[in-house]
């Protein structure tokens, strides 16, 4: 699926003076856009073929630290180059930035020009190719939640991220009047994304003060992941341009609801015309293929959690009674379950993974879900009965890992993930997870000081 903006369109816009800048971006391990701003004329004359970046971009943490312990790159290896190969099918105008277009790049080995195996886009493309070999195509959609603040990013930073004022003072879930007060930002986001070739369905208020959700039309897995990273960057840039700030932190405040990125997923025939999850004669309309796929998700739920919740903060979101799941079970149209059956008895039948937070990397999350589902199909796994009732109170049922430490161990020890992604890839992300834990373990939090300064 393309953005309906071609390289020929770009060349015309450059010649006519409408576009003077092209952002060439790769996606890093954190799901952020990293790259260069090209003079547009130079890009269309040759840089569209390839450009280069330092290979540390896929071996850093949130702070851009040169983390030790990675096999792929290090100070000993000299931090050489990767080749960035623009995927021109992702080319789009960026209407919220003057005279700007954007293209996403695949990350290639500088010498072999093969995909770098641990690059997020390559990881997802590998699972998509596995499905294609099975005559199947995955369609997905991500629902992104975030908080909108009245301060700018600069003001929030200067205040130490304390005393922040959300865009509303009360729970605004589905609230029309309150969201009308936020339309200056949200309307710009909806219209900006639509004009950038991302078909928007709606925005809405979410279940806490200042919390928003943006929903766009589903697409094949790779296209949806591409859209997801552009959406996040767009939301931040548009909010910044309006003197506001947005956070996709999974749990920004103890008293506020967490922010999620639910992932809806279904499989179709290779031509995208026949829903492989639907059987009109089966219970709930679930085909045998769908049952095997969901069984795979559940069998490997603990192993794939890291790719749905990659940070220390991610696990603060999993709290009972907050619409964030705590149990990795499936249920019929039940928002207390980690995996929710939607669209039963229709061609639109799908499984919604509710585990992921708004801080996930969509390529890694989707790839992990697909790998688990494929394993369920290949091994014809039997689906357990649907859970009924309040999953928060369920006893002796499969739980989501409680901490990053637990999730890291499960990922690292997963034979399924090592087979699907490769040992080097899993070792790479295991090191990233370990570093996140190590950095947190040596930090002193405000909570510790306030609790123990006088009383310890």
UniProtKB/TrEMBL annotation:
Keywords: Ligase
Domain GS catalytic: 120-456
Pfam family, one: Gln-synt_C
Alphabetical list of PROSITE patterns matching this protein: GS_CATALYTIC
Cofactor: Mg(2+)
Family per record: Belongs to the glutamine synthetase family.
Protein name according to UniProt: Glutamine synthetase
């Amino acid at each position: 699926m393309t953005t309906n903006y071609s390289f020929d369109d770009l060349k015309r816009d450059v010649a006519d003076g409408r576009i003077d800048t092209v952002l060439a971006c790769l996606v890093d391990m954190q799901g952020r856009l990293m790259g260069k701003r090209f003079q547009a004329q130079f890009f269309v004359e040759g840089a569209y073929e390839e450009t280069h970046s330092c290979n540390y971009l896929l071996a850093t943490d949130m702070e851009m630290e040169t983390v030790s312990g990675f096999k792929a790159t290090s100070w000993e290896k000299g931090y050489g180059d990767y080749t960035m190969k623009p995927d021109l099918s992702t080319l789009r105008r960026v209407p919220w930035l003057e005279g700007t277009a954007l293209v996403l790049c695949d990350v290639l080995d500088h010498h072999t020009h093969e995909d770098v195996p641990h690059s997020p886009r390559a990881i997802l493309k590998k699972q998509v190719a596995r499905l294609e070999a099975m005559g199947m195509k995955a369609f997905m959609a991500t629902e992104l939640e975030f908080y909108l603040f009245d301060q700018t990013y600069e003001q929030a930073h200067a205040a130490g991220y304390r005393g922040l004022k959300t865009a509303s003072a009360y729970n605004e879930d589905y609230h029309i009047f309150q969201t009308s007060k936020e339309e200056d930002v949200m309307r710009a986001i909806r219209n900006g994304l639509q004009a950038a070739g991302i078909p928007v369905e709606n925005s809405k208020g979410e279940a806490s003060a200042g919390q928003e959700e943006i929903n766009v039309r589903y697409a094949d897995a790779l296209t949806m992941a591409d859209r997801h990273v552009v959406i996040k960057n767009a939301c931040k840039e548009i909010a910044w341009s309006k003197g506001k700030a947005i956070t996709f932190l999974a749990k920004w405040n103890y008293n506020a609801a967490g922010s999620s990125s639910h992932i809806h997923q279904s499989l179709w025939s290779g031509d995208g015309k026949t829903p492989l999850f639907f059987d009109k004669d089966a219970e709930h309309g679930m085909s045998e293929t769908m049952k095997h796929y969901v069984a795979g998700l559940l069998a490997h739920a603990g192993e794939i959690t890291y790719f749905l919740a990659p940070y220390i903060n991610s696990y603060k979101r999993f709290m009972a009674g907050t619409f964030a799941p705590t149990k990795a079970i499936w249920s019929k149209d039940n928002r207390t379950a980690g995996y929710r059956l939607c669209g039963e008895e229709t061609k639109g039948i799908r499984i919604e993974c509710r585990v992921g937070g708004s801080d996930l990397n969509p390529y890694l999350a989707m790839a992990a879900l697909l790998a688990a589902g494929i394993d369920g199909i290949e091994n014809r796994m039997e689906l357990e009965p649907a859970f009924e009732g309040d999953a928060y109170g369920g006893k002796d049922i499969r739980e989501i890992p409680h901490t990053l430490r637990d999730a890291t161990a499960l990922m690292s020890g997963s034979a399924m993930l090592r087979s699907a992604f490769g040992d080097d890839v899993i070792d790479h992300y295991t090191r990233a997870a370990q570093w996140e834990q190590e950095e947190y373990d040596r930090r002193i939090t405000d909570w510790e000081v306030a609790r123990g300064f006088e009383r310890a």
